[in-house]
User: Which sequence fits this backbone?
C-alpha cells in the first residue's frame, strides 16, 4: 500500500501536461467560434452561441488500492459516487473538459483477528480532459443522402487527473496522498436536441480506479 505525504506539491509531470493541453486548446480554438457548433441537416451550423456545456451525474466504480505490502486486504471494491463537469467545444471534433468526481470508498479488513472493523479509503478526482469526437454521426449520411443516427456521438477521452485519497482511521497504514496520473476514457453521447443530452462514459484512473458514469448534459451560451 503506497504511503506518501498528504501535502505533496505538483510534480513537473503535472505542470508539463497542463502546458501541453493548454497549448493544444489554444491551437484548436483559434478558428472562428462558429466552428465549434453542431452541424444541422443541411450541413450548416446550429445553436451558434452554445460552445459551452455542463454535465452532472452518478457513477459506479471499481476501486482497488494496493495493499500487497501490508496486513490489510481489500474486501469491498465497488461503490457509487457523483460527478460534475464543464466543457468547451474548441472545434468540430475537439472538446476540452474539466471534471470533478467523487468515486466513493474502498473497504479493507485486517488479517489481524484483533481488528474486526472495516476501514475505508476514499477517492476524489479532479481532472482535465481533451476529447475527440471519433464518430461524428451528425455528418454521417446514408446512401440516399439522409442523416442516420444524428443524435449519437462517440468520444475518445485522454487527460490528466490528480487523485486524492484519504483513510477513515489511523489504524489503517495509509497516509493521505495526492497523485498525478494520466487518464483514459470513452463516452457515448445522445443529443436529442440542441440544449440537452445524456452521456454514458467509462473512465480509467490508473489501475486501481475505473468509473462507469451517466450524466445529464446541458449546452449553455456564453
Assistant:
Amino acid at each position: 500500500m503506497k504511503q506518501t505525504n498528504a501535502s505533496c506539491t505538483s510534480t513537473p509531470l503535472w505542470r508539463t501536461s497542463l502546458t501541453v493541453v493548454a497549448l493544444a486548446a489554444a491551437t484548436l480554438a483559434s478558428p472562428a467560434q462558429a466552428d465549434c457548433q453542431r452541424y444541422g441537416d443541411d450541413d450548416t451550423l446550429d445553436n451558434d452561441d452554445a460552445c459551452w456545456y455542463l454535465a452532472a451525474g452518478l457513477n459506479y466504480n471499481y476501486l482497488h488500492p494496493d495493499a500487497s505490502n501490508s496486513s490489510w486486504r481489500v474486501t469491498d471494491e465497488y461503490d457509487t459516487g457523483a460527478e460534475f463537469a464543464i466543457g468547451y467545444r474548441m472545434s468540430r471534433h475537439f472538446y476540452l473538459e474539466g471534471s470533478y468526481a467523487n468515486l466513493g470508498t474502498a473497504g479493507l479488513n485486517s488479517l489481524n483477528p484483533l481488528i474486526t472493523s472495516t476501514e475505508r479509503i476514499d477517492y476524489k478526482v479532479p481532472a482535465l480532459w481533451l476529447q475527440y469526437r471519433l464518430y461524428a454521426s451528425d455528418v454521417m449520411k446514408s446512401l440516399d443522402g439522409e442523416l442516420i443516427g444524428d443524435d449519437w456521438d462517440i468520444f475518445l477521452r485522454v487527460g490528466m487527473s490528480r487523485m486524492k485519497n484519504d483513510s477513515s482511521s489511523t489504524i489503517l497504514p495509509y497516509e493521505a496522498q495526492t497523485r498525478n496520473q494520466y487518464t483514459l476514457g470513452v463516452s457515448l453521447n445522445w443529443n436529442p436536441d440542441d440544449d440537452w443530452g445524456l452521456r454514458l462514459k467509462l473512465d480509467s484512473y490508473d489501475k486501481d480506479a475505473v468509473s462507469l458514469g451517466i450524466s445529464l448534459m446541458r449546452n449553455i451560451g456564453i
About this structure: The helical segments are 12-28. The two ends are 45 Å apart (CA to CA). The chain has one domain: 12-22+50-220. The first helix runs from residue 12 to 28.
